[in-house]
């Protein structure tokens, strides 16, 4: 091999490296929200213009790991915030392996405790890794940049964080009206003119309380509550949010019959475009704060 | 109906008596011209009779598997006797109880149990069910499992005590967890599959793509991986001027440990026995008779587990591939003389074509699948495997010191793995990639 060849190889490698960087770096400062298709459960990845990352819920299995590999930058093994809306298995299970494999900045919880094996394992792993825990409460907000430039995540619910302990060995609904789903962290992600309402598994009971926010509920996109179950997404709430698009995180042929026909027709009544992870795969929303694009996998 | 057929005792005895008779008659009239064929035939008949008896003994055990408890709720204590099989959304444990034998337990991912744990299990016991395209009963039978229990109540009793195997599996787990902390998915699972044969956590989509492109064997530990490891080690120890006679012992021990770590599947054991013989032959300075090695490997494996012969497609495929590489490869080597051996492309081509032809009948019969891009895919991917394995291994080891260091060391493997996965997925997209 002569000098020319060597030079050529070096140049080729350099070009490849530059292109690799070009392809992996997003040019304009955009907010990316990925509704991941993880089967019957929730997992929503948020990447801010400054490359901070937040994962809302971990899904029902380790399927989420492959999705993170797909959407996070190739060499990144850090997630700044993981936020668990509530401790049900279809939201927490995937987090355990994520905690083991990724460097996590902080864990945000809703304050409800559920006595299941999966949730106990989750808490143990958080403790073992010595990751700070923050209990979310309505009125608080996460600022991903200066208040002027955003984005920010405003927490609208749960109202109180008195210790709610659910002594359910099973995943079932809590007794005496203490529905675990209603402890869900509900929040609104705002970036300039763009906003997404994220409701976890909250039911109409919480939606009714939220109506007190009035005009502030208005959002461009709604993550439909509780996988499109009929006990969520009531008309009065939907009218207040009046979303352009509604995203339902739901698994194909799930045994609960999500999403319900009733919910789908209510969404149509408010003229929301419906996106479903069971039909559309991963749903990616990219916004610069003024114009927003929605991409679906299928 | 029993799915395990036992040759009748009369038949077994008959074959034995017949063999003895043929052998006896041969010795009775030694001067006959067909003395030698008679001896060989008689001897073969006797060996066959012994084989039938042994197989009958094993199958009897299968059919005796406490049928009266099937469908009933049972409480029992059992020890986890195999490496836990953790998938994306559930886990499976092989638990052994003195009176029930082995029971396959399917349950959630958490809480996590480990090899050697003693568990108290309360739940329904059932027989494995076959689906139209998969003989699940036979698949489990090869590992001596005849009962299953799905999502029973499990409680941890105690740890059965540390032993050698538990230690080995613990090391494997911490090694793969280092890789998992450094690489994203699916690269992490892909690398673990290459290095220690942990392929169960690959995403469904990728597993299907591997099948479509005829590259599934890459993620199953085989003779190929073992020979790479042996050669790299031999060069390494040779390089640091280690005395020759020690090198062979060390490599032999490493191959055995590796086999245990990789889960001792049929293909791994076969490769290990043959690889060990190769190393041994070199040490003794004798010629390595490959045919003898294959026969010895098969005989040894069947001695320990006769079920492999009938119930393990992996056993058949592994030996067919080896036979293809030995007997067909020389012909194809001549065919492909003109192909440049840049990055050992010609060797990969020869090996792939030989192995594909040898294994095609069984693959087609068992899996009903023929991949038309297999040769292309293998030639494009195989040459890059050794580098991925080497840097992946170094990165994993580096991870024990610090994850940052591991991440730097693993970088070349990261790129190559991404290339391999991309290639497999792209080729699988071709509409004519696979016929079913």
Concise structural overview:
The complex is a heterodimer of chains A (298) and B (436). With 298 residues, chain A is an alpha/beta fold. Chain A is 28% helix and 26% strand.
State the major sheet of chain B. Answer: 7 strands, mixed
Average per-residue pLDDT of chain B, rounded, comes to: 83
- Unreliable spans of chain A: 172-178
Poorly predicted ranges of chain B (pLDDT <50, ≥5 residues)? none
How many helix segments of chain A? Answer: 8
Question: From the helix content, strand content and strand pairing of chain B, which structural class follows?
Answer: alpha+beta
Compute the CA-based radius of gyration of chain A: 20 Å
Total strands of chain B: the figure is 9
Largest sheet of chain A: 8 strands, mixed
Supply the number of helical segments of chain B.
Answer: 17
Count of DSSP E strands of chain A?
Answer: 17
Mind explaining what this structure looks like?
The complex is a heterodimer of chains A (298) and B (436). About 2% of the residues of chain A have low confidence. Chain A contains eight helices and 17 strands. In chain A, strand 3, helix 2 and strand 4 form a beta-alpha-beta unit. In chain A, helix 3 packs parallel to helix 4. The radius of gyration of chain A is 20 Å and the shape is globular. In chain A, the strands form three sheets. An eight-stranded mixed beta sheet of chain A has the order 7-5-4-3-2-1-16-17, with helices on one face. A seven-stranded mixed beta sheet of chain A has the order 8-9-11-12-13-14-15. Chain A has 298 residues and is α/β, with parallel strands linked by helices. Chain B folds into three domains: 55 residues; 87 residues; 257 residues, no CATH class. In chain B, strands 1, 2, 3, 4, 5, 6 and 7 form a seven-stranded mixed beta sheet that branches. Chain B has a two-stranded antiparallel ribbon with strand order 8-9. In chain B, helix 10 packs antiparallel against helix 12 and helix 12 runs antiparallel to helix 13. Chain B is globular and about 75 Å long. At the A-B interface, helix 2, helix 3 and helix 4 of A face helix 4 of B.
């Amino acid at each position: 091999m002569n000098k020319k060849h060597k030079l050529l190889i070096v140049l080729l490698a350099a070009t490849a490296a530059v292109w690799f960087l070009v392809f992996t770096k997003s040019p304009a400062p955009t907010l990316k929200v990925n509704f991941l298709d993880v089967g019957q459960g929730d997992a929503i990845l948020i990447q801010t213009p400054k490359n901070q990352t937040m994962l809302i819920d971990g899904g029902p299995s380790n399927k989420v790991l492959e999705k993170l590999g797909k959407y996070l930058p190739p060499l990144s093994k850090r997630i700044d915030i993981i936020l668990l809306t509530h401790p049900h298995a279809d939201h927490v299970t995937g987090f355990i392996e994520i905690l083991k494999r990724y460097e996590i900045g902080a864990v945000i919880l809703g304050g409800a405790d559920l006595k299941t094996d999966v949730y106990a394992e989750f808490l143990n792993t958080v403790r073992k890794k010595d990751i700070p825990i923050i209990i979310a409460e309505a009125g608080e907000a996460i600022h991903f940049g200066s208040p002027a430039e955003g984005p920010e995540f405003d927490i609208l619910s749960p109202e109180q964080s008195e210790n709610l302990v659910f002594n359910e060995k099973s995943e079932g609904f809590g007794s005496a009206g203490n529905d675990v789903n209603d402890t869900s962290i509900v929040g609104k992600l705002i970036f300039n003119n763009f906003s997404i309402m994220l409701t976890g598994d909250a039911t109409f009971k919480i939606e009714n309380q939220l109506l007190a926010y009035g005009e502030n509920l208005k959002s461009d996109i709604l993550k439909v509550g509780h996988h499109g179950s009929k006990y969520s997404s009531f008309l009065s709430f939907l009218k207040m949010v009046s979303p352009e698009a509604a995203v339902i995180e739901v698994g194909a042929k799930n045994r609960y019959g999500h999403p319900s026909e009733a919910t789908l027709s209510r969404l149509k009544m408010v003229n929301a475009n419906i996106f479903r992870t069971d039909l559309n795969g991963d749903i990616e929303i990219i916004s610069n704060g003024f114009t927003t694009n929605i991409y679906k996998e299928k | 109906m029993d799915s395990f057929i036992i040759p009748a005792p009369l038949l077994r005895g008959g074959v034995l008596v017949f063999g003895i008779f043929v052998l006896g008659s041969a010795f009775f009239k030694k001067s006959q011209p067909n003395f030698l064929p008679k001896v060989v035939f008689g001897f073969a008949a006797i060996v066959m009779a012994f084989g039938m008896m042994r197989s009958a003994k094993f199958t009897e055990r299968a059919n005796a598997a406490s049928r009266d408890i099937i469908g009933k709720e049972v409480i029992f204590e059992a020890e986890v006797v195999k490496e836990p099989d953790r998938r994306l959304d559930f886990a499976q444990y092989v638990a052994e109880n003195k009176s029930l034998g082995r029971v396959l337990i399917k349950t959630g991912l958490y809480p996590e149990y480990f090899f050697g744990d003693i568990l108290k299990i309360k739940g329904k016991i059932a027989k494995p069910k076959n689906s139209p395209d998969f003989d699940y009963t036979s698949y489990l039978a090869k590992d001596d499992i005849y009962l299953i229990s799905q999502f029973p109540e499990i409680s941890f009793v105690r740890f059965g005590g540390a032993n050698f195997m538990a230690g080995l599996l613990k090391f494997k787990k911490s090694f793969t967890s280092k890789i998992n902390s450094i690489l994203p998915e699916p690269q992490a699972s892909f690398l673990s599959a290459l290095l220690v044969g942990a392929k169960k956590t690959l995403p469904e989509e990728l597993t299907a793509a591997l099948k479509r492109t005829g590259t599934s064997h890459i993620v199953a530990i085989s003779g190929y991986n073992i020979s790479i490891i042996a050669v790299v080690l031999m060069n390494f120890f040779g390089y640091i001027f280690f005395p020759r006679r020690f090198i062979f012992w060390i490599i032999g021990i490493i191959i055995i440990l590796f086999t245990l770590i990789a889960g001792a599947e049929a293909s791994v054991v076969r490769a290990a026995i043959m690889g060990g013989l190769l190393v041994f032959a070199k040490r003794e300075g004798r010629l390595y008779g490959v045919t003898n090695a294959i026969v010895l490997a098969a005989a040894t494996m069947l001695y320990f587990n006769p079920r492999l012969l009938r119930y393990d497609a992996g056993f058949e495929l592994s030996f067919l591939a080896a036979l293809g590489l030995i007997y067909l490869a020389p012909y194809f080597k001549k065919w492909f003389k003109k192909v440049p051996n840049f990055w050992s492309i010609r060797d990969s081509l020869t090996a792939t074509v030989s192995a594909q032809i040898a294994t095609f009948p069984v693959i087609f019969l068992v899996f009903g699948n023929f991949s038309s891009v297999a040769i292309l895919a293998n030639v494009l991917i195989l040459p890059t495997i050794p580098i991925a394995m080497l840097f992946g291994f170094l990165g994993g080891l580096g991870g024990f010191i610090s994850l940052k260091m591991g991440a730097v060391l693993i970088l070349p493997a990261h790129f190559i793995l991404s290339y391999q996965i991309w290639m497999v997925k792209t080729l699988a997209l071709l509409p004519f990639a696979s016929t079913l």
